[in-house]
Amino acid sequence: STAKRCKDKHLEEALQLSRTLSEGLRALGEAEARPLLRCVLAFQMEATGSSSSFQKLEQIVTQLAVGKEALLAQEVGTLLAGLAPQGEVRAPWLCVCMFMEESSLGRKHWQQNLAPLLQRLATTLRWVLQSQPAPGSTWGYLAVKACLQLFQVLPNDVAPLVWSAAEKSEALQSLLGL
């Protein structure tokens, strides 16, 4: 579509601009860089329906954060922690999937927060199976996708929770039992 091509063109221009201005951006202090990073991360959250847009924004945010990697990790962690509050069934699973699939910091966040993510997935999938969501509802499908992506993207973190008696996860066992 024309709108998508236009958006991709402007994101490519923004990426080139961030590379051109990288020296000046590195000179920004944390207080100045934080709102800019939050803004680009917010755009990235809105771009979860388009892999190419998400990837370009990932490159931009990575470029902006050169020398401020800890700040970026903190902002991504805060953003992703707010995606699926404890006990929330209808989490924005598309965002979870995209950050797991396309963002190294997103994967790291979910790796470090594996137990709560597994618990939320188990709660959601149990609810989906019990309540039979309306036909055409995509969030149940996206929760299944997030679960499968989790197994695919973080196999070394998930495997011990399945096979090791010492590390067994009730949430994971619940998922596997569904």
Can you describe this structure?
With 178 residues, the protein is mostly helical. The chain has eleven helices and no strands. It has helices at 2-20, 22-26, 30-46, 51-64, 69-81, 93-102, 104-112, 114-131, 139-153, 155-163, 170-177. Helix 3 crosses helix 5 and helix 8 (114-131) packs antiparallel against helix 9. The mean pLDDT is 85.
Describe the secondary-structure layout:
Blueprint: H1 2-20, H2 22-26, H3 30-46, H4 51-64, H5 69-81, H6 93-102, H7 104-112, H8 114-131, H9 139-153, H10 155-163, H11 170-177
CA-to-CA gap between the ends?
40 Å
Per DSSP, what share of the residues sits in E-state strands of 2 or more residues? under 5%
Q: In angstroms, what is the radius of gyration?
A: 18 Å
Biggest β-sheet, characterized? none
What would you call the structural class? Answer: mainly alpha
**Tally of strands:** 0
Provide the residue-averaged pLDDT: 85
Uncertain segments of ≥5 residues (pLDDT<50)?
Answer: none
**Total helix count?**
11
Shape: globular
Order of helices and strands: HHHHHHHHHHH
Proportion of residues in helical segments? over 70%
